[in-house]
Design goal:
Two copies of one chain form a homodimer. Chain A has 888 residues and is an alpha/beta fold. Chain A has 36 helices and 31 strands. In chain A, a hairpin with a 2-residue loop joins strand 9 and strand 10. Chain A is elongated, with a radius of gyration of 33 Å. Chains A, B: Its EC number is 2.7.9.1.
């Protein structure tokens, strides 16, 4: 087996073997671009090392052969002679992965070669600084020494020298530091810093291999579901130096603006510096265009290379380069990250340029990006200066009065005020406050913190982990890095897309993309809208999946239609039992005997009929799937504990009577209780009242010249017998309405598949169902055995942090568990009934990755909230375009 | 296709085609026994009729041919001539089925043939009574006329004649009744009673076919899971008459005593009567032995036939026969029902006689019968006279003071009194009272009524539907048929095995079978115990499944061992957190910071260690599977509502603090919340404390010379990552204990499979598990999406009544749903890890039908409550004996 590839041997399609970095270095070499020579040790070698704890037998010789070749080509020897060759050792897995060892520069420097480097570079300080950096970086990452030990000595050296920055330390100071660093190495490892250049290199390679199984890397892989057995490659590359004087420098460049997508020259340049310095931000970079003035030849060469790369990769590339004494070297390239708006613009530009075809254009944008473009944003954000920046945890833009505890949030919100809940971190006790607030800001915690997870679940704007902001809950104030104090009631604005936090109110404007979907902006309103319009049109043409809306009212249905919804996939009738009608529902529940119960149902009938008539009118000509009442009855009554306390204190007679009913209906686990079809089978007349309302509404619409297309859906079916009984009753009612009105109503009757048992016996159930709609919310709850309400706040945070979940299974369908049931039910259902219509109406219907799953298992449609319809349309189109993934 | 079989053509193995009745009539004919000639129309004909609504084309001619043959053999014509042939038409499906039309006798009688019959029999009254019976029976069952219309006329005739019974009605009165009956037929159907004998027969056959889809028959099939497409056969048989004088008669006989199983002559005889009269109970039967005196020849012939039948069927047979003027005719035989004790005795007797082999003997008894033998019974029942009899709904024997409402039951039980809850019927509001009572008695409802279902779920004695008892809840009294009044506080005794109800206390004695299992009675204590011992020994030799116990204490473990348990399959540690230790648990839950939490855990550690040490001692040498803490923490705290009310009224400071914790831990659906492995991952130190206690207890036992074999089981795992983390922690703790104590502990670590997701991803989970134990209680809850506590009381009754369930899925495993997941998990788990140990510890582990299922899917063991161990052993042995079913 071949374990080492010269840069001249590989290419960009060998990412599995050479990692992303190595494959792209090889590709650039192959294109004849100026890449410093080097070679890549393959992931095969890493896997062999991880398995056995040792490098493969042949690796050492193979590396020697490649190193020899490199030395011959460069005319220099690694760490030896008058002009010693130095190399960098860089990790590079197939997927970029935080937590793995990254890079060791300057390998080859020793007590001996440091002098040669100084002489060769004509710069004593540069050579000792390079050696200091090597020992520090090698000590920390290869030898595992606490980095703070080195930092402390540098601090001390600066103090002693009376200077502010490392750059001001003299060569002598640096030489002394090297001596101290070497003592640290001896103290920590029991032996001296390796003086054999080849040993330095071998140890660094081995450390990269071992870092694959570092704790953070493993956690990251668990979260991102990256297989554990890929391993990482290691690239060994001849060093070039951007810090050899004013004719040297280093920079990053993009072939297009990654923020807007517009074409042009974008990037930053720092003269007389190494890449490390750019990252450290000690000196300010200049815009890349400045390079033209500093070094016109290198600039022209860079522009030429950027064009070569973009035409070769057919996409925005980002590039790292170094100029060593007037000679341009390419250190890295990859397809560059970009903002959502840029992604849409670039895809359409490349399509217009004829560089990519339409399906490829669809692959270049994601539903996640489209969703970002649909959030409102701050209109004048550029005019404001953020007081801090945190993690963009849940998108949107929100302004409101700062409050520092849940109770205050609830109280002020109840008084009509818009509030932002500010906490160091949140916990389950903050839930009420989070619900009441416009947005949530925390100073601690990452993307998987409680605040972030819960806010995303609620669709609420959240910035978390804004560590430069000091939150003092007791004193009810927030202090910024520059000492500005925001007290309770002061207005804050937070941007959930960028993570920025502003003092005062920043006006919010709606998204132009939403205005386009709403029909209030033309498809060519601006170039972003035009790009979105173009790609949505392509997606609609490609997709096999229909897209319907979860909509309970005529207003929602009308919006869904504007957003491209092709019907209602889920109308939840329970919402029609709330508000003014609560009293009727209470009468139904408290009914003493059949007559009272029927009177309550009779009173509800015309109200329900009215609801459905409006809904069918809004969706005229398109299917409307109405789910019969799902939740348990006690949801329509007061809370048991609250009412018990009230009765104990006030002894009100009506309350006491109510309490008896609440107690009777009380369930330990209402999610697993008397609800859905069970309720329909136990409460006589309830479902038939609803069926009658639907049928009469359809007949009324028909009489008015409309084209109503209702479909009736039975919730929570576990066994076909339940469905058979309800179906018989419903058919009798529909036949009765047809007889009375003379209308020929053809109303399909189907069922939710939202219990494991329904999925497991789908073949039987299909015998009595015209359609299935997968209720993946409930299915996720029962397959995992946890209720969303109870657990998102309690242990999901810990689970995400421990990497047990990569993403909440309520956000993206759990393909291994829940998904396998869906797949089996689709197969069994279609086998039993080839014309069975299949859809999904859980919230997963609007989630990009889940949409791909539903496409793949062959559903007919997804149904989601009206606002998610464009995302679902786009992803459904992308799913039909082979090779599109949901991550950019 | 052949649709009609002469009795001479069929045999007992053709039950699918000829039904049970037809097949056995053919078998007796084949054996040369005196069966009246006849033929059977097949289930194929019935299925064709049900499918098309018409008899198959060829059926009429085929019936004609067989009828001709019958007439030729008898030398008589159906309903014609001087000596008209009469026939009976009887339904007979593969399984006996209430709700189907049963029998029409005397077909062939018309206005004309009634006279010939009178002349031939020499008995005018007999002829007119037979005709009256035909019109009445035919009118009701074939023509669907309300039977009350006929009864009313008979009542009136009796009144007019001034007689008490039908038998006293004269021939003239009966002739007049026939005229009136014929008028009823005309009024109800618009045409006269058919005078064509063949038409009578054809209509009766068609009515039998149609009765297959009668409402009650369909309900019964749904409940008993009998396929809907079997259809019924119809037997047409020449009539013989037992009511032609003192030398005629009718009777039933058993080849052994169905009550005790003892050999001898058992049965009843009624001279000068038809079968109908025996059922109606108008005259008292005499013991069968009396027949010897009345008709020695027939008696001898009957004994000979009984011996033939028993030697042929190799089992207890029950027989219906008629003697017509000194000639014995066999009308029916089948393998007879018997009591549990009889089943055991008979199986061993037949085995001893060499009639059946050992595996067949095992097939002849069931775990359900064994369970009946293990309930305590009334010692002197025979000395008491029941005041009423109801349905034996839930076995056992109970005595106590009669109470008529739940609150009184709770109050009296709390005061230490034993009570029997008496209600017309129960509903969910009676739950507390049912829990408090020794037994439940209702006057309404059947085996699927609320009282029956809930009592069986609780394992509580219950007699329901004792309709002769009048329950007046308002007046707090029960009135028997003879007017005896039982008031509140008066002692009642109920026998859940027989359904009998007694006034006063009947002493209860333990079962001798239980004494045998306990070791306090010798294996030959009595002939029943000897039979049980013999068959248990056979079962243990045959079975592949191991049988363990669900036992939480050393006492339970010791009993389990006596009952034949081969280890503990489930030790629930939550019980160890109750009682005196509640306070420590409260400290753990209310802990403010790590130190307090650790202090609470440290205090619990030695207590847990002590528990385990005792348990391992009791099960020395056998495996003990300990499940780490499963329930949510709030189960160890007071109820939220109760505490809220108390705090609102009393403002106690400690309570207020407690309320905060209860609120924090409160979950809407605790079953779907923070429990099991989730709790272990979120509460630091909890699981490791338990693991340490187990390991230290094992080390202590090892040091004391014992052989502890603990296994640690992680509850509620949904994904392998959870298991991996807990496993890593547990292994570290065990290694630490090994290091400290020097004991080499080899403790397998496994998981419950009790969530659908665990079953669906069993292949992954097996990678980190040494064993699986299927938790089929929770699996049933999540697969069906209902919680046992909530739904058994609310909708299970309705579901059983509507036939949605045949049996509660918590009693017998739902093979189609839950079972399919178990099967898939077994396959995937073993594929991933061939040495994976597989067991089940849900309550299904002791249910006969479920044990067969677990045997069939290939588990290694079942675990059940100690008391169910003998049942599981027996059924495991029977399951290994091909062809054994769980119903007798």
């Amino acid at each position: 087996m071949k374990f080492v590839y010269d840069f001249t041997e590989g290419n960009k399609d060998l990412k599995d073997l050479l990692g992303g970095k190595g494959a792209n270095l090889a590709e650039m070499t192959r294109l004849g671009l100026p890449v410093p020579p080097g070679f890549t040790i393959t992931t095969d070698a890493c896997r062999a090392f991880l398995l056995t704890g040792d490098e493969p037998d042949t690796l050492h010789d193979e590396v020697s052969a490649h190193l020899d070749a490199l030395e011959r080509r460069m005319g220099r020897r690694l760490g030896q002679g008058d002009d010693p060759l130095l190399v960098s050792v860089r990790s590079g897995a197939k997927f970029s992965m935080p937590g793995m060892m990254d890079t060791v520069l300057n390998i080859g420097l020793t007590d001996e070669s440091v002098g040669a480097l100084a002489a060769q570079a004509g710069d004593e300080r540069f050579a000792w600084d390079s050696y200091r950096r090597l020992i520090q970086m090698f000590g920390r990452t290869v030898l595992g020494i606490d980095g703070g030990l080195f930092e402390d000595r540098i601090d001390e050296a600066r103090r002693t020298a009376g200077v502010a920055t490392d750059v001001e330390l003299t060569a002598d100071r640096l030489r002394a530091l090297v001596a101290e660093f070497k003592e640290i190495v001896v103290a920590a490892t029991g032996r001296g810093f390796p003086q054999d250049p080849r040993e330095q290199m071998d140890l660094a390679v081995r450390a990269v291999f071992a870092s694959w199984n570092g704790e953070r890397a493993r956690l990251y892989r668990r979260q991102e579901r990256i297989p554990n057995d890929l391993g990482t490659a290691v690239s060994v590359c001849a060093m070039v130096f951007g810090n050899l004087g004013p004719d040297s420098g280093t920079g990053v460049a993009f072939t297009r603006d990654p923020a807007s997508g517009h074409q042009g020259v974008y990037g930053d340049y720092l003269a007389n510096a190494q890449g490390e310095d750019v990252v450290a931000g000690i000196r300010n970079t200049v815009p890349l265009a400045e390079l033209e003035r500093l070094d016109a030849a290198s600039y022209a060469e860079l522009l030429r290379i950027m064009e070569v790369l973009e035409n070769h990769y057919l996409d925005l590339c980002d590039i790292e380069f170094t100029i060593e004494r007037g000679k341009l070297w390419m250190l890295q390239t990859r397809v560059g990250k970009r903002t959502a708006a840029a992604a849409f613009r670039i895809a359409v530009q490349l399509l217009d340029q004829g560089l990519i075809d339409e399906r490829e254009a669809l692959r270049r944008v994601t539903g996640g990006q489209l969703a970002q473009l649909m959030f409102p944003r701050f209109s004048t954000e550029s005019e404001h200066t953020p007081i801090g920046t945190g993690i963009a945890a849940s998108p949107g833009a929100a302004s409101g009065a700062a409050v520092f505890d849940s109770a205050t949030a609830v109280a002020r919100a109840a008084a009509g005020e818009r509030v932002i809940l500010v906490r160091r971190e949140t916990n389950p006790d903050d839930l009420d406050g989070m619900i009441a607030a416009q947005g949530i800001l925390t100073s601690r915690g990452g993307k998987t913190s409680h605040a972030a997870v819960v806010a995303r679940g609620m669709g609420k704007t959240c910035v978390c982990g804004a560590e430069e902001l000091q939150v003092d809950v007791a004193a009810r104030r927030l202090t910024t890095a520059d000492g500005t104090v925001i007290g309770e009631g002061d207005v804050l604005s937070i941007d959930g897309a960028s993570g920025r936090v502003y003092a005062g109110e920043v006006p919010v404007v709606p998204s132009s993309v939403v205005e386009y979907f709403e029909g209030t902006a033309a498809p060519d309103a601006d170039d972003l809208v035009a790009a979105v319009h173009r790609l949505m049109t392509l997606a609609d043409r490609e997709r096999h999946l229909g897209v319907r809306a979860n909509a309970d009212t005529a207003e929602d249905a009308a919006r869904a239609r504007r957003f491209g919804g092709e019907g209602v996939g889920l109308c939840r009738t329970e919402h029609m039992f709330l508000g003014d009608r609560r009293e009727l529902v209470e009468r139904l529940i408290l009914a003493d005997g059949e007559a009272e119960r029927e009177a309550a149902l009779d009173a509800l009938l015309p109200l329900q009929r009215g609801d459905f008539t409006e809904l069918f009118e809004a969706m005229d000509g398109l299917p409307v799937t109405v789910r019969l009442l799902d939740p348990p009855l006690h949801e329509f009554l007061p809370d048991l504990t609250d009412l018990s306390v009230r009765v104990a204190l006030e002894h009100d007679e009506r309350d006491t009577r109510l309490l008896t009913a609440v107690r009777r209906l009380h369930e330990q686990n209402p999610m697993l209780g008397l609800r859905g079809v069970r309720l329909g089978l136990v409460v006589p007349g309830l479902f038939t009242m609803q069926v009658r309302a639907i049928a009469e509404a359809a007949a009324a619409r028909r009489a008015a010249g409309g084209n109503p297309r209702p479909e009736i859906m039975i919730p929570l079916v576990g066994t076909v017998q339940e469905l058979e009984i309800v179906r018989d009753e419903a058919e009798a009612v529909i036949a009765d309405v047809e007889r009375v009105t003379g209308a020929a109503l053809s109303i399909p009757l189907g069922t939710m598949i939202e219990l494991p048992r329904a999925a497991l016996t789908a073949g039987q159930i299909a015998g009595s169902a015209d359609f299935f709609s997968f209720g993946t919310n409930d299915l996720t709850q029962t397959v995992w055995g946890f209720s969303r309400d109870d657990v998102e706040a309690s242990f999901f945070t810990a689970y995400l942090e421990k990497g047990i979940f990569g993403v909440s299974p309520f956000e993206t369908i759990d393909a291994d568990g829940v998904g396998s049931l869906v797949r089996a039910a689709v197969t069994a259902g279609r086998a039993a009934r080839p014309d069975l219509k299949l859809g999904v109406c859980g919230e997963h219907g609007g989630d990009p990755e889940s949409v791909h799953f539903f496409h793949e298992v062959g559903l007919d449609y997804v149904s989601c909230s009206p606002f998610r319809i464009p995302v679902a349309r786009l992803e459904a189109g992308r799913a039909a375009t082979a090779g599109a993934t949901t991550t950019p």
